[in-house]
Amino acid sequence: MAMSEKEVEAQCHEFREMFDALREQVGKVIVGHEDIVDNVLISLFGGGHVLLEGVPGLGKTLLVRTLSNAFSLQFRRIQFTPDLMPADIMGTNIVVEDPGTGHREFQFQKGPIFGQVILADEINRATPKTQSAMLEAMQEHSVTSAGQVRPLPSPFMVLATQNPIEQEGTYPLPEAQLDRFFFKLVVGYSDRRQLKTILDRTTSGEEPKAEAVADGEKILWAQKLVRRVVIADHVQDYAIRLVLGTHPEGEFATEMTNRFVRFGSSPRGVQALVLAGKVRAMLNERYHVGFDDITQSVAPALRHRLLLNFEGQAEGVQTDDVLTDILENTPRTMEKESAA
User: Fold this and answer.
1) Distance CA 113, CA 90 (A)
2) How confident is the model over 179-194, as a mean pLDDT?
3) Within this chain, do residues 238 and 219 fall inside the same structural domain, yes or no?
4) What is the pLDDT of residues 230-276, one digit of tens each?
5) Does residue 158 belong to any structural domain of this protein?
6) Residue 3 to residues 13, 18, 154, 225: CA-CA distances in angstroms?
7) Do 215 and 263 have their domain in common?
8) Are residues 184 and 279 in the same domain?
9) Same-domain status, 222 and 236
10) Rounded to an integer, what distance in angstroms lies between the CA atom of residue 270 and that of residue 213?
């Protein structure tokens, strides 16, 4: 049943209030990194997972824990190490004995993946065998153990961290798993003012804590609402052409793409662009997606979906450089189509 204009406006207003409340609660604990917080929230309401990359000590783990407090969701932390096995994540069958009858039977003991907000800390330290155990959970929201498929709680979100500077004893994530992440966010250093605030909060006895402002039911409602935001055909086509611009030798590939990119983005890239655009539209008090809503998400949505070739790696080209070039060389509307 179609909603009236007033009902749509009321629901979008409720969504913005919840988003702002989550921002405020996270801001009690996390100093700075406003863009990172916003993009994590956008990923949540877009129904996706997030990969956080940054050097140690920048607050990645604290951010995830704070978000779980503000969401009132089940938080689970998995510390990835080279000796971590798939069963350590998913769970395993154990023998349970009935104290009265002495009868023994196998019972499934759930692993830490059976949460709602999963912190996969230093995910690139686990072996490929263990990393693959996360693949089904992230894509299907279920795990298979002993031939039985077990659904995970809903909503379900993985926030994984990785350290870009220590490569000894790490296993780079395969492209198939990277593609499962909605956004890849690069966490930078705090500035002088932010460091002062961090010191004031952490060395003076203060213990700020985020309060719960949204539960799982509210988040599922918001995720459904996001998908109802309208996107015009010409804006959607712009998002499609941006993704096609990452495909070397393709119709919309730029010179930089052809020279430095080996493989471009999958269809999940354009899905992330459009869903993130819908969230941004509602945050800007609009019920339709604009061009700027799409461009603001190009870097986080596509940077991990490009694979540079040997020449690109040798010359120190970054995927963000390629994406900036694509944005500069992709017109928002096609001249022939607009003339027609």
Assistant:
1) 6
2) 82
3) no
4) 899 999 999 999 999 999 988 888 899 999 999 989 999 999 999 99
5) yes
6) 15, 21, 26, 12
7) no
8) no
9) no
10) 31
